[in-house]
Amino acid sequence: MGGCQAGSRGRSLAVRSLEEGTADSAFLVVRPPGHHARRATAMGFCLFNNVAVTAAMLADRGERVAIVDWDVHHGNATEEMFQAREEILYISLHQYPYYPGTGGLVDMTTDRAAATTLDLPVPAGTAGDLYRLAFAQVIVPVVGGFQPDWLLVSAGYDAHAHDPLAGIRLLASDYAFMADALAAVTPPGRTVYYLEGGYDLEAIQASVSATLAGAAGREVPDEVRRFRSPDVAFRILDAVTGEAAKVWDI
Known about the structure:
This protein is an alpha/beta fold and 250 residues long. It is built from 7 helices and 6 strands; from the N terminus they run αβαβαββαβαβαα.
């Protein structure tokens, strides 16, 4: 990825620090976000695809890399860069249909590499109950079955209920749940979070704090007021789970 070398060096500092045992995980507050940036084209607020740079670096040296993208938008560029690489797993949960218009249900059986792309396109109004079930039912089993050496998280917080840009209704404790669930199937000291989207400062602050707590295994109490996802979201999850079950032991 020519043109990203300076960014690549910056991202590799987090990898090197984790390899040296100086931290249990890393959270990079990078701006601008990155998961829409293609190999040679900026897109959707994104100039450099920070996660993709690190994933390519790790994979090129023989590591297996799982990318989980919980930004409210589909990480179209990350997916297209790695959809032919069996050693990189890409999973995205995102509002659909919504910008950038990609990320619908995928056929995971077309070839061996197709098994390492998993999209969960959910409608506006989807909430933490669906996300938590998705992690338990399909995402954590797939990540565990993939057996990654590294986990990279495109940690967008524009799926928070208070975010003005989209229509997903997550709360801070949902991010804690997802981070804790991923920690259970990832080698210790091998997780890097990258700040992606998010346009409500208070929601970002609460959600990042909850993410770090969840990653560390600390309990984050659920909010008193919770939301319920529409029935169609659960039907979509069932369809995605059925597709994943064709190629993964879930």
